[in-house]
């Protein structure tokens, strides 16, 4: 799929499951927590935690019972650990290609400010992003148009693209605002995998790709 980019183009990305797999953040957090409680032999605990998660059990509840710790403390450990995550193949090349054409790069993501920023830093791209919109900072989440209008305010009279993965909430607002929209298809590891429920026109993007490498900057 071709994306025509010049100085009046803004290409905006979702973060989780679009630039990396959110499941990898969860794994990274679980490993960090396991290392905290069992520093000499943490892998059995991590294995148990991930198994509980895969079986849709309450992982933190199990840790509360085992280690007599408050769930709020566990949540803080989860959200504030230094993530070990890897950007998707093709993503960095795509961003550099946009920059070479003098285009702007944005991120619109739901989540907590510190957590989302730590992810962007861990992916090694924070210095390449021209505008970051995080739901906690502005008090609205997708599909609210406000999150996307902040991009438009930062770069008025541009053409706008949004690349994301979650049909439930990602494309409603940018479609309404006449942006170009592209969905990255679930690679089998996405946290949200119920796209089949959102096949109506309101939720559909204008295009689908299997990987970011399919996007060609012209």
UniProtKB/TrEMBL annotation:
Keyword Hydrolase: yes
EC number in record: 3.1.3.-
Molecular function terms, GO-annotated: hydrolase activity
InterPro entries: HAD-like_hydrolase (IPR051400), HAD-like_sf (IPR036412), HAD-SF_hydro_IA (IPR006439), HAD_2 (IPR041492), HAD_sf (IPR023214)
The protein's required cofactors: Mg(2+)
Pfam families attached to this UniProt entry: HAD_2
Keywords of the record: Hydrolase, Magnesium, Metal-binding
Record has Metal-binding as a keyword: yes
PANTHER family tied to this protein: GLYCERALDEHYDE 3-PHOSPHATE PHOSPHATASE (PTHR46470:SF2), N-ACYLNEURAMINATE-9-PHOSPHATASE (PTHR46470)
NCBIfam families reported for this sequence: HAD-SF-IA-v1
Protein name, UniProt field: HAD family hydrolase
Species for this entry: Winogradskyella pulchriflava
